[in-house]
Design brief:
150 residues, alpha+beta, Ribosomal Protein L9, domain 2, Ribosomal Protein L9, domain 1
Length: 150
């Protein structure tokens, strides 16, 4: 019997999958517990359409991320922060500050958690930072740390 899984079932599949299981298992366990519903031709067709739409959406996101990565590799983001006389910062530049600078200067939304800083930025200068935009898509760009003008 073919069933559409409503929740993840160990040994059968994940939610949204269509699984072939024995009639007894489906009728006595999966369906009464709300883990699955019987899958007819309409249900199978609807699931296939949803999967194709999700795959298409994912492909579009991937292409957009690759285009953004190519654009970001040419950027130089300026971050202004308090610094001492010798160029040492009071604190460190974090992903949050870089993310907000990207938004302000280039209107690019990049979550602070996706920005990877190789070593802490604690002095004025130019640093190379990378951002993970999508699975297997990262972009390296320059961050120029400048002292705040009084």
């Amino acid at each position: 019997m073919k069933v559409l899984l409503q929740k993840d079932v160990h040994g059968c599949g994940k939610a949204g999958d269509i699984a072939s299981v024995s009639d007894g298992y489906a009728i006595n366990y999966l369906i009464p517990k709300g883990l699955a519903v019987p899958a007819g031709a309409e249900t199978i067709n609807a699931v296939n359409i949803k999967k194709k739409a999700a795959d298409h959406r994912r492909e579009v996101q991937k292409q957009n991320a690759k285009a953004l990565a190519a654009d970001m590799s040419k950027l130089s983001v300026k971050v202004y922060t308090k610094a001492g006389e010798n160029g040492k910062l009071f604190g460190a530049v974090t992903g949050k500050e870089i993310s907000s600078a990207l938004k302000e200067q280039f209107d690019i939304d990049c979550d602070k958690k996706k920005i990877s800083i190789p070593e802490p930025i604690k002095a004025v200068g130019v640093y190379t930072v990378s951002a993970h935009l999508f699975e297997k898509t990262t972009s390296s760009f320059k961050v120029e740390v400048l002292p705040l003008a009084d």
